[in-house]
Amino acid sequence: MRDPAPDRYRRGSVLLELSRTTAILTRLFERELARTGVRSPVQGALLALVHIHGPITPSALERESGLAGSTLRENVQALLDAGLVRRFPNPDDGRSHFLDSTRKGEAALDRQVPAMRAVEEAVERELGRSLETYRLPVERLRDAAQAAGDR
């Protein structure tokens, strides 16, 4: 017979809960995005990050997104192929380039915002409060995870 799990694991670790929550939210967002022509939540998020931070280098985008390099490259290439982002040389570093959103990408973002808002509103109805109340703790958690990964 096994020893009972420590109390903190009876409900699952907080990391497990975050992973499950992310998977569920991603599925909800994917369902809403399907109506906009954006193929995946990952590509939708990358497009938004490129637009917010652009022009941005791929290495800076990797840090901002938290995605592994190979996953990032594959999804950025899909955005480039679809004409949603453009690539242009970095004048300060001949080995590097920048990414920025295109007019077509901005139009896709305009279609994406209502999909994101629909998911947010559905979750807010269940919570009985605005998701904005979670922004600071979520940002702190993201920053701490990034700092831990950098060490």
How would you describe this structure in keywords?
mainly alpha, globular, 10% strand, 66% helix, Arc Repressor Mutant, subunit A
Descriptive notes:
The chain is mainly alpha-helical and 151 residues long. It has a single domain (14-150), classed as Orthogonal Bundle (Arc Repressor Mutant, subunit A). 66% of the residues lie in helices and 10% in strands. The chain contains seven helices and two strands. The chain has helices at residues 7-10, 14-33, 41-53, 58-65, 69-81, 103-127, 135-150, and strands spanning 85-90, 93-101. The protein has a two-stranded antiparallel ribbon. Strand 1 and strand 2 form a beta hairpin. Helix 2 crosses helix 6 (103-127) and helix 3 (41-53) packs across helix 5 (69-81). The longest helix has 25 residues, at 103-127. It is globular, with a radius of gyration of 18 Å. The termini are far apart. The model has no long low-confidence stretch (mean pLDDT 89).
How would you summarize this macromolecular structure in one to three sentences?
With 151 residues, this protein is mainly α.
SSE layout and pairing:
Layout: H1 7-10, H2 14-33, H3 41-53, H4 58-65, H5 69-81, E1 85-90, E2 93-101, H6 103-127, H7 135-150
Antiparallel strand pairs: 1-2
Helix pairs in contact: 2-6, 3-5, 3-6
